[in-house]
Here is the input.
Amino acid sequence: MRLPLLVLFFGAFAFAARAQDGLVVPSLDWRTVETKHFVIHYPKAAEAWTLDFASRIDAEYAAVSAIVGSAPEERVTVLVQDPNNVANGFALPFLNGPVVFFWPTPADPSSGIGAPIGWGGMLAVHEYAHVAHLARPSRNPAEARLARWSTLDFGPLALATPRWATEGYATFVEGRITGAGRPHSAWRAAIIREWARAGQLPAYGQINADPRFFGGAMAYLVGSAYLEWLVARPGQSDSSLAFVWRRMSARTPRGFDEAFSGVFGAPPAELYGRFVAEVTAQSLELERALLADSAKLGAGAPATVQRLHWSTGAPARSPNDSFLALTRGSPTTPTRVVVWPTHVPADTAAARRRAAEMKRDPLDVPAIHPDPPPAPAVAIRWPEGGASFDSPRWLPDGRQLLVIRNTGAGDGEIRRDLFVWDSRTNVVRRVTHEGGIRQADAMPDGRSAVAARCVEGICGLVRVDLASGYLRPIVDGAPRVIYERPRVSPDGRYVAAARQTGAAWRVVLIDLTGAAPMRTVGPDDGANRYDPAWRADGEHLVVVSEAGGVPNLEELDISTNAARPLTRVASAVRAPEPRGRDGTVYFLRLHAFGYDLDRVAADSVPALADVSPLATAAGFAPAATRPPVAADTFAVTPLTPREYGLGPRTMRVLPAYSYGAEGSSVGGMLAGLDPVGKLTWMAQGFFGTAGSWEGGSAGAAWRGFPVVLRAELFSSRDDPSHQWGFAAPATLDATMSGGVLSAGYHRAHVTNEQQFTAGVSLASFTQAGATGPRWVGFASWDGTFLATIKTVTTSARISLTGAAGRTDGEEWSRGTVALTLAASRGPMGLELSGSYGHADHASPAFELFAIGGTPPPFFETALYGQRIVMPALPAGLTTGNKMATVAAALPILGVRPYFWAGTTAASLNDWQEVAGLESGIATDGIWFARLPGLRVLGGAGYAMNGVWKYKTRVYLSVTFRP
Here is the structure.
């Protein structure tokens, strides 16, 4: 198996485990619509958005397939859901039945992602381009057979194409098909130009993944620009890229570098060096032209207020102009909202230190300090339960601010909600519930706010009552009409907002009294304008304008629609915020390491002529903006939705394995799944060494209700007395055949998560040649609660489990409680855990607690709740009617060094101690990827005392659940 495939395989599982199954919520009211080339599943709430893009998706399929030069042999499955209230999508390019996922929340204006076909159409082009590109089968017979029988079902391009080429190519196609998107974006040009002139363009080995600011986007931005440069070289064309893909899938096996070199005449790293040199030269020439134009501002030129690194959110001034609030982020510190004074005194302490240094050593050379002194934070709102606040806006009292953060809908979906933060007491009050709020601005009376609300792809404007959280629509959005960043006029009569129709962003003015219709503000010159902000006179707006190809500030007169330029930067600006008293406008300016906070005295800016045409000169692309071009609007096909029902069924066969100190078990599983996971059934079988698990099961899970129902029939054999190296008491040996019914209710929020489970089982129990019934009833509650202390995220997990029953005529009961406390900062963490259990003294020996071994790999683990799992120790190492464990771990980057100790002694002494290292992933199902519930755990443990002292055991398990 090739390394890229392993990374993709385990990376997908890790992502799904973190997502806590929120990517798909099976209990929603799912619908299906089919086209010639796609089967699309979506929640009924997203029907308007889905049908809009679905009606054109076959025409887009034809256009993309033509430019890529291939198309999948089977229909593509599309899943639509809004799990995180953010703009995204992804593709799984399976050779047999590829899958793509659309998140309907649209992108913001500064992302540069826009097209006449709307956000859904853009997703369809970009994600289907991945499928058409990467699902191309191999023409090599051996590779084709391997792919056909492989459980992962990926072709040679999916396995061997670097990320920059996959994302860059889909972005390249995005621009070619739509005539818009990131390849024609002023923001792509600004980032490439700014990074190039700063000498910070990624090296070839960094395009795939770069830890620096905006590094994750370089595969899209620089990757697409590099591909455009390649096909524009003499003798090349768009077809050259299709030739690379044909060479990679040829009968003669070739990797990416070899296939690339055969088409372009040199390795990709070599030509990339030339690309960087040319783009840098273009960027420096453009910089000279743009800075010459900027010099015309004279005394009206912007000044830097704070030199900042990494991400910075839109500034918000307080009503008395004394403070600024904004969101700050960094790669090592959680995102937080800070409040700074607008007047930052000179750093006299630093000046005294410099003077003292020079006095001690007159020959020393003092350092240059061109940056303004850092602003002292007068208030900070750190994350709550690991969820950061952002988008601050002041209320009229100058003390409280509107802020927004992610919240959970309970079913696993994330929504953004509005809160009120008291900056003096640091108390936060929640206003909305499942609101889908993107930005908000307070009305002058402080009792309500106007907000942009995005739910299921529809983004409109609403009025929010800050006392009750009631939402009243102001203007509705549509699948291809998006409203963004509302700002209330000083008198409270108007709302200015950015409005996107197709690829164009314009600023609109809405009369809240209803006396006048909505109208567009600003010149009708085709330029994108967004991020509106009111000046104090209520007659002018400051906006970001892409006129001339560079995002700069403009002032718009709302009565005449006249535009007056305020800045001339060589990079890009965003998020203007005028002060009330003196006409100063704060804004964010892009540079290669983040966003600086700048300001400009708007009333001091002289009248300027048009900007240099170099900023939009096609010969300077990608350092200059490529203007949008006319593109196909795509034919519309009428569609008729239907109920999802049980959904289409997919069969899946996968191997399973369990290995630990007691032995090994090898098995397999056959599962039937549907894309959203409503109904999953599974049959499993295991064979093992003496003392390990053997048997089989058949079960199903129904997730069509909020309560998950499971049923299972099983037959198992476990004989710990025959395991490797240690003979456990024969009273633990048992053969069972029976069934189990259970119900589970899971509620997942951002700051807490709870799971309730209850079930009952009846089985035939055979031990020492005697057979009798075994009844079991069990119930559990598991709760995890998160809190944040500045830069440290803490969690407390509490688990309560109880079981009772009758085994071969003897009644028994037991209960356990477990507590885990964890703290993390960045990639490192600390976990401390402990548990205690007690079983009734009259319990039969089989139902007593037993330390060691692995859990049942193919049926409900609650039926063996008395087993204290520790795979590095043999099963049944010690037994008793009491149990206690303690553990400590230092998780870092997915690996857990740990210390574990457990005992079943009546006096809770005689501890068995293990030190080890392990890593694992778990998910209840990635159904759209044709995977049921999965548990993977691997590691090694060293026994430090007891009967197993000084022994080291490696353990590994790959098990599945329906």
